[in-house]
UniProtKB/TrEMBL annotation:
<keyword id="KW-0028">Amino-acid biosynthesis</keyword>
<dbReference type="GO" id="GO:0004640">
    <property type="term" value="F:phosphoribosylanthranilate isomerase activity"/>
</dbReference>
<dbReference type="Pfam" id="PF00697">
    <property type="entry name" value="PRAI"/>
</dbReference>
<keyword id="KW-0822">Tryptophan biosynthesis</keyword>
<keyword id="KW-0413">Isomerase</keyword>
<comment type="pathway">
    <text>Amino-acid biosynthesis; L-tryptophan biosynthesis; L-tryptophan from chorismate: step 3/5.</text>
</comment>
<comment type="similarity">
    <text>Belongs to the TrpF family.</text>
</comment>
<dbReference type="InterPro" id="IPR044643">
    <property type="entry name" value="TrpF_fam"/>
</dbReference>
<dbReference type="InterPro" id="IPR011060">
    <property type="entry name" value="RibuloseP-bd_barrel"/>
</dbReference>
<dbReference type="InterPro" id="IPR001240">
    <property type="entry name" value="PRAI_dom"/>
</dbReference>
<protein>
    <recommendedName>
        <fullName>N-(5'-phosphoribosyl)anthranilate isomerase</fullName>
        <ecNumber>5.3.1.24</ecNumber>
    </recommendedName>
</protein>
<keyword id="KW-0057">Aromatic amino acid biosynthesis</keyword>
<dbReference type="InterPro" id="IPR013785">
    <property type="entry name" value="Aldolase_TIM"/>
</dbReference>
<feature type="domain" description="N-(5'phosphoribosyl) anthranilate isomerase (PRAI)">
    <location>
        <begin position="14"/>
        <end position="205"/>
    </location>
</feature>
Amino acid sequence: MTTNLVLPARTRIKFCGLSREQDVADAVAVGADALGFVLWPGSKRCVDEARLAALSARVPAFVTRVGLFVDQQPELIARCAEHLDLLQFHGDETPAFCAGFGRPWIKALRMRDDLDLHAAAEAYAGAQALLLDAYRPGVPGGTGETFDWSRIPANLAKPVILAGGLGPDNVAQAIELVRPFAVDVSGGVEAAPGRKDSGLLAAFAAAVAQVDRTHQA
Ligand SMILES: O=C(O)c1ccccc1NCC(=O)[C@H](O)[C@H](O)COP(=O)(O)O
């Protein structure tokens, strides 16, 4: 059983909602492990298929290209998948739907009060990880809000990607408490929606590296 109790040597970093070539370059330069591209038209950070192709071509080997979808048409997802390494589903997609593209995938879960994480981990057993995000009714992601991190059980049967309201000032505290496989940030490293700030990207990566070092000492 994969479990969150197996602590990673370091906390992986996913920067999400990139829409500009310069932001891709800046994120890679500070050591991003993964870059997220939002394909959902309801988002201010949305990129279309042509922009996805252009941005994904700028991503070097060993940095994971992640595409974000919210209950979208399988034909669109399949076309986008040509430019992606990993699919991230933010809607009510079933496990079978998520698995239907022949690509590794993760499931985003919004931490509504009644969410049973153990049951969700069992239901989405085929996911590479669960991305846990804040719940705001009617907003599928990118809220910039945190949630009660103590709700995440240490023995969850899937690796955790912690998201929601993270930034350079609180990511160390979040890692200390949750010890996630990875952290995911969008709004906390932005100058404006969809425009990343190179200083905030660097500060976020430095904060993660710093807390990781204390665990290795
Ligand atoms: O970012 C969006 O606009 C978005 C829209 C719809 C679904 C998902 C979206 N973003 C997903 C992410 O992975 C964000 O990084 C995650 O929700 C955390 O966002 P933030 O709280 O701003 O760091």
